[in-house]
Design brief:
13% strand, 3 domains, 44% helix, Nucleotidyltransferase, domain 5, five-stranded mixed beta sheet, alpha/beta
Length: 361
């Protein structure tokens, strides 16, 4: 009599398709994906030991699920009921937790706490927390948003994103903005350095020694940054910064500048300069859409890695720190990769608008 451990499993077309679908999923180490792969390998032939070697698992695991499949086919690959305390929370209570979290609030308050909701429904606070986690509900958390009212929203998104995804030939594209009012802050007491088990500690109060503004132009192709520290960020300062870019960019290349809708960017002095330098083209992001300007991502790195924990005793020291950090960045510059197309962004905005424009709003 042939050894059943060596004979390939015979699968129907339905079983083959179902098992391949399960095998493509992500699951735990002993989840349905692994069980499906075991059966599919057994269908290829070979002993339990050979299948275990191909999958890198124990032979006992292959033996178990081969036998389960032979006994009950696909149904044998599901988990059997496990012993334990019977379930005490009903489906109606789970639904009540979800509905009340989404549609109601305690009298005089803005949202439920787990203890308040647990007392109202008659279950434990931990049960409410588990239900919230299962349904992805976080009533204590909030985020802000702003839908741009720009009448040229779609055109501007397509214009800016088009520059990110397909840079024009014989041209340089800069993402430009200014970071105003950067403060030269000195803590009122010396910073206590980090030690094992103890983070760096600093006093909450500080002495301010003045402020500076930083103009930055991010080359989206290379990731390098041209920076200029100024006392203000007026239209004349922005015009002078454009002149600095003009001196840096090789002759013969067009220059595309992506910027926001700050009044200084559209002032007559800037417009006259642009007319006198036809190789420069300004591209404006939609109003309230700074997230579309890549240099904002660079400013976030500057804030996190240089300014947030910096200690500056004077404006001069702050200026030197900014210039040094830009130099270090440029030594290891990498461009930020933009992946979303204009259509994907517009579809996302349209979907969100449809959600907030229903009868409930």
């Amino acid at each position: 009599m042939a050894d059943s451990r060596l004979a390939p499993l015979e699968l129907t077309a339905h079983e083959q398709t179902t098992l391949q679908g399960w095998a493509s999923r992500r699951s735990t180490a002993q989840g349905p994906a692994l069980r499906a792969r075991i059966v599919l390998e057994c269908a290829r032939g070979g002993s339990n030991l050979a299948v275990a070697a191909r999958l890198g698992i124990a032979r006992g695991t292959v033996t178990k699920w081969r036998a389960r499949f032979l006994a009950a086919r696909l149904d044998g690959l599901s988990d059997e009921p496990r012993p334990g305390v019977p379930r005490t929370i009903t489906d109606a209570q789970v639904e009540q937790v979800v509905v009340m979290t989404l549609e109601n609030a305690p009298k005089g308050e803005t949202h439920w706490s787990k203890r308040q909701l647990a007392a109202r429904i008659g279950i434990s606070p931990n049960s409410v927390a588990r239900i919230w986690k299962a349904f992805g509900l976080q009533p204590w958390k909030t985020e802000t948003f702003k839908i741009s009212p720009d009448p040229l929203l779609i055109d501007k998104i397509r214009d800016v994103v088009g520059l990110y995804l397909a840079q024009p030939a014989n041209a340089v594209v800069f993402s430009v903005d200014e970071k105003p009012q950067i403060q030269a802050l000195q803590r009122s007491a010396p910073v206590l350095p980090m030690m094992p088990g103890v983070p760096e500690r600093r006093s909450f109060d500080y002495v301010r020694h003045g402020t500076v503004d930083l103009f930055a132009a991010l080359d989206i192709a290379t990731g390098t940054v041209v920076g200029k520290v100024t006392a203000l960020h007026t239209a004349d300062d922005f015009r002078d910064f454009l002149a600095d870019l003009d001196a840096i960019v090789p002759t013969g290349l067009d220059v595309h500048v992506i910027c926001d809708n700050l009044s200084a960017h559209k002032a007559p002095a800037v417009q006259r300069w642009i007319v006198a330098h036809p190789r420069f083209t300004l591209h404006f992001t939609p109003t309230y859409s700074a997230w579309l300007n890549q240099v904002e991502r660079w400013f976030a790195e500057l804030q996190r890695r240089c300014l947030e924990r910096g200690e500056f005793c004077s404006v001069e020291q702050l200026t030197t720190a900014l210039q040094d950090w830009i130099a270090v960045w440029n030594d290891n510059a990498r461009p930020f990769v933009w992946k979303k197309t204009a259509d994907q962004i517009i579809d996302r905005i349209c979907h969100y608008c449809s959600r907030i424009s229903g009868p409930a709003h």
